[in-house]
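TLR21 protein structure dump, as promised
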Amino acid sequence: SWQVWTIYVILAANFSEEQALKQTCPSCDAAQLCNCSSMGLDFIPPGLTAKITVLNLSHNRIKHIQSKDLQQAVNLRVLLLQSNEISSIDDDSFASLGKLELLDLSNNSLAFLSPVWFGHLVSLQHLRLQGNTYRDLGGSSLFSRLRNLSSLHLGNPGFSTIRQGNFEGIVVLDKLWIDGGNLGQYEPGSLKVIQKINHMIIQLRSAKVFSAIVRDLLHSVTWLEVRELKLEIEKKSLVQNSTLPFTLRKLTFKDASFTDQYISQLIVLLKEITSLRELEAVDCGLEGRGEWDTKAIASSGKSLVETVSIVNIMIQNFHLFIDLEGMESQINKLKRLTIASSRVFMVPCNLARNFSSLWYLDFHDNLLVNNRLNETICEAAWPSLQILNLSRNSLKSLEQTAKYVTRLHKLIYLDISQNKFGEIPDVCEWPKNLKHLNLSSTQISQVTTCIPTTLEVLDVSANNLREFALQLPFLKELYLAKNQLKTLPGAAPIPNLVAMSVRRNKLNGFSREEFEGAQVAAVHLSLMECHRTLVVVLMCALLLLVILIVMAVGYKYHAVWYLRMTWAWLQAKRKPKRAPAKDICYDAFVSYSENDSDWVENIMVRELEQACPPFRLCLHKRDFVPGKWIVDNIIDSIEKSRKTLFVLSEHFVQSEWCKYELDFSHFRLFDENNDAAILILLEPIQSEAIPKRFCKLRKIMNTKTYLEWPPAEERQAMFWENLKGALKS
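structure tokens r here:
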């Protein structure tokens, strides 16, 4: 009936489309995840069905998206189209994608964006539009229908304008990222319509636009990250007539450039943002020596910032940086300070004494040395400090380091790892409340009573320890990984131990006495540490299997032969290229297949050796030295012959023996003198029939005249004359 015929046609069409999809993108076969990335596609493959939830078409050459392309992919959750050449999209291309949650159109060639594209994407949470060629977002909101949008990334090097209404309809965003390196026009109020933004990243060079954006975000953004800002003097207030309360709590500058003058102005302006509690500068540059306007800064009131992080700041003349005298009033409320990877070599004592509220200090990866530590940690400095990180500096004396740290009466946590102490004294002074000490990677070879007995956590991993026998009654965690220990520490000296790491040592086993009957709650050991014998057996078995496979492959492809032949060739290379005339014994060495021996031995040899004058031929059957290795026989015979005759036939190119002779000839003969080879075609043979690895022989057959044996007797006399002439040349 026609109903059956209709069903058949529909099923056949669907099957045909699925087959087309399978051919275009094999990973899409019966899978919910369809990865068609980097396949050189210039179109969206046909046959996409409702089964697919993730479609990756990135890094192709797609230029246009048509209405029908995604029509059947109604259950799509993720659509990745980044890094194509998309320049146009039909209005209803995404109309069926009501369940789509992530759309990536970044790094294409879209010169404009249409709100119609996104009108049906009611479930969309993540939208990436950066790296296209549009200069603005149009005159109306692109995103008014995207009520579930959580993250938005837009902009490009040519993006220049943001207008009011561009973000209309967006209420809350977790992350907003704008690449606006050349953003020069920003209409005030454009971002004000968004009620809440947890994290905003903006790439920006204009200080004027920066100020306008900050004013709009005071009541919505929690963390503002500004990148590539080239700061100029902007004395206008950042808050102007804005009403409290503000929401901006963290401000990050990344890849920005500062001057002493602008630092002073910025500190004053940021005090107006009364909600600001954290400042961060990452990979920034400072053109100056710290000559800040401390009077203007002090007169503007106290700073409310509690956390400052400075990571990898570049100061060209850092050794000339002054002591920031006059900044004391601005730091006494600071609680957390990180200055890392910034070549700090000391902190002036007067400045250090005014960090009265600071309890966390991180100076890792700097240039602190012991003879300046007396100034950095002077008496009464850092009075509230509880956590100190001095890892990856240039400290060399553990005794001096401990002595200066003793001045920090409230210190609980100390990290001095990755310094080159080497030696450890028998006695050290430490803060009385110290509970956590990190001495990992400090090149110490033993632990002594220098280690404080107050510790609850001790890390001495990645050193050269051979034993650990300290009395630490309060210790709860002990880290001993990457040492040379052969036995475990005794249980009695560390009775309160809860966790211990002994990875990558030289432990062979644990005895009952080492634990003294104490129950171990949890042990995390590698397979090697738990089952060393089993692992060794498995490794040996695996190695044996690999050796057997290599031997089998080598046998199949005659690897031993080729290795020995190569060695012989290398030895032959050291000899003179031509043997002296007195060592020439033959007119020609003959290379032929055993299947052609009747013609060679009964016809050619008789004709040449009975000629007048006779020719002296070298045949492997007759003239090779018995007991001598075959390769040495070949080398000696070729070197003692003026010419080499190759009797080519179908049998020759299929013969393994002849291949070996050709191999050596390929190495030795053709490299030295092409005229020494004489090719005889016993039967018609195409050069393509010769194995491809003998490229020089194939080339000779294509470029050099060869002798062809004529079946007709009347032409054979001319063949012999030509061959004899070639042998005499």
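The domain at 586-728 is CATH 3.40.50.10140 (Rossmann fold).
lmk if u need the other ones
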